[in-house]
Amino acid sequence: QGPTPTGAPASSRTLAVVLHLSRRHGVALIVGGLALCWLVELRSGGAAVVPPHIFYFPILFAGLRFGALGSLCTALASGILAGPLMYAEVASRSAQPLSEWTMRTVFFVVIGQILTAMAAVAVDGSRRELDDLDAGRALARAMDQSRFEVYFQPIVSFAEADHVTGAEALVRWHHPDRGVVGPDEFIPTAESTGMIRPLGEFVLRSACEQLVSWRRSGLV
Q1: Over the Cα atoms of the chain, what is R_g?
Q2: N or C, which terminus of the chain has less Cβ within 10 Å?
Q3: 4-12: which pairs have CB atoms within 8 A and are 24 or more residues apart?
Q4: Residue 26: other Cβ atoms inside 10 A
Q5: Block means of pLDDT (10 residues each) for the chain, length 220 residues?
Q6: How, if at all, do strands 179-181 and 87-89 pair?
């Protein structure tokens, strides 16, 4: 066996978990995160004692999982929880001024959208990295499960009365879901993940074994 694809960094694995969460679980985590932020802020003494910046965490999470719309809805909910539903000072039970929590809500929305846009760039890069990693692992599994097969296409010389002068070895991947997959679809992935070496060794070994078989049967 040659080299196999390495694992993704911890940040990419974490991002993969977020992106692959179901919609229901994602919404549940956002609601739970908002409730937790509200309790932490309340126990901290109120918005005037500790600025409720902790709400940016569920806002960013919503942006990663549901995009700009998710970030917007979570930012508005955060503005309400950290505004009219939160005391300025819990000890005195004083309410926050309208202008103060309204401005904070605007910041939640604007900064949430900016963070979501910035995270989208990282998400696209990580998604491609994870896709490449999954493809490399699929090739490694296919190699372990003997799903590759070599076909031989004859090379004919028309100058010698259609005499067969050789054969071209063509590798195919018998995919369990997609059927027979041509090399143009998996060779680039094999080259980028290091699987090209064991795959090349398999093709060379198969070609040599076939040549021996042809010689023994008198075809060569």
Answers
A1: 30
A2: N
A3: 4/136, 4/137, 4/140, 4/194, 4/195, 5/133, 5/136, 5/137, 5/139, 5/140, 5/193, 5/194, 5/195, 7/133, 8/129, 8/130, 8/133, 11/126, 12/126, 12/129, 12/130
A4: 19
A5: 46 64 89 96 93 94 90 96 94 92 95 88 69 82 91 85 84 90 88 89 94 88
A6: unpaired
The rounded distance, in Å, linking the Cα atoms of 111 and 117 is: 10
The token pair that represents 25 in the structure block: 């679980």
Assess contact for 132 and 189: CB atoms under 8 A: yes
E strand spans, the chain: 87-89, 94-95, 148-157, 163-175, 179-181
Per residue in 33-57, pLDDT (tens digit) is 999 999 999 999 999 999 999 999 9
pLDDT at res. 5: 42
Residue 173's pLDDT is what? Answer: 92
The partner residues of 163 in beta bridges, in order of sequence, read 157
The per-residue pLDDT for 178 is 86
Question: Residue 153 corresponds to which amino acid?
Answer: Q
Residue 56's identity, in one-letter code, is Y
pLDDT of residue 4: 40
Instruction: Decide if 203 contacts 151 (C-beta within 8 A).
Output: no
